[in-house]
Design goal:
- By secondary structure, the protein is an alpha/beta fold.
- The chain has 6 helices and 9 strands.
- About 35% of the residues lie in helices and about 25% in strands.
- It binds glycinamide ribonucleotide.
- The site of glycinamide ribonucleotide (GAR) has 13 residues, from α1 and β5.
Length: about 210
């Protein structure tokens, strides 16, 4: 960042505990990283209340109001542009985003996923990990492309699965990691510390590691 405010658009579908970590650590933190708007597909998402309590503008785009996903995402992209957003953060946003949004924010949309990608992409990763009998899982923050959880990985951290874990106990420990990892990834991008390897654009390089 160069003294200018770095503006986030955060998309949520549910509880919004990760949105809360961005509010606490960044929006209300010492750096000039601010949430410009919180958007949801679900007008009952508790994340909208968290945003309102922090004085952040909100907007709701229920899928049912649109003919198709492209039209839906075009409307969302217009709202994000209206708020002059620098980075779009999917923090528990449960719909796939289409090129109608991605093309307007090239390599400026990131997603949080509760597994060590490319293992267990999709809609129920914690359940899938437990059902598979894996002993290690984790958290991934990655750039969004048109596939399902398939874009270049920015940060990952492992979480051990205990023999007596339930989906809920594991989810709680994953959340602890997420609440640290997602704000950290946003900070790295905002501070221009993230770039792509010129020889292999799938590889993301963080400045400390170069
Ligand atoms: C988080 O665990 C996030 O990784 C996951 O939804 C949860 C939202 O929690 N996202 C996905 O599964 C995306 N495929 P939150 O609403 O409390 O932030």
């Amino acid at each position: 960042m160069s003294g200018l405010e770095y503006r986030l658009g955060v998309l949520v579908s549910g509880s919004g505990s990760n949105l809360q970590s961005i509010i606490d650590k960044l929006h209300q933190g010492p750096e000039d990283i601010k949430i410009a708007v919180v958007i949801s597909d679900n007008n009952k998402a508790p994340g909208l209340t968290r945003a309102a309590e922090a004085g952040i503008p909100t907007a709701v785009f229920p899928m049912i109001d649109y003919d198709d996903r492209l039209e839906h995402d075009r409307a969302m992209a217009e709202e994000l542009e209206r708020h002059e957003v620098d980075l779009v953060v999917l923090a528990g946003y449960m719909m796939l985003v289409t090129p109608a949004l991605l093309d307007r924010f090239p390599y400026l949309v990131i997603n949080l996923h509760p597994s060590l990608l490319p293992a267990f992409p999709g809609g129920s990763p914690i359940e899938d990990t437990m059902d598979y009998g894996a002993r290690i899982t984790g958290v991934t923050v990655h750039y969004v492309d048109e596939g399902t959880d398939s874009g270049p990985i920015i940060l990952q951290e492992a979480v051990e699965i205990k023999y007596n874990d339930t989906v809920e106990s594991l989810r709680a420990r994953i959340h602890e990691v997420e609440h640290r990892l997602l704000p950290h990834a946003i900070e790295l991008i905002a501070n221009n510390q993230v770039r792509f390897d010129e020889d292999n654009p799938r590889r993301v390089l963080i400045r400390e590691e170069i």
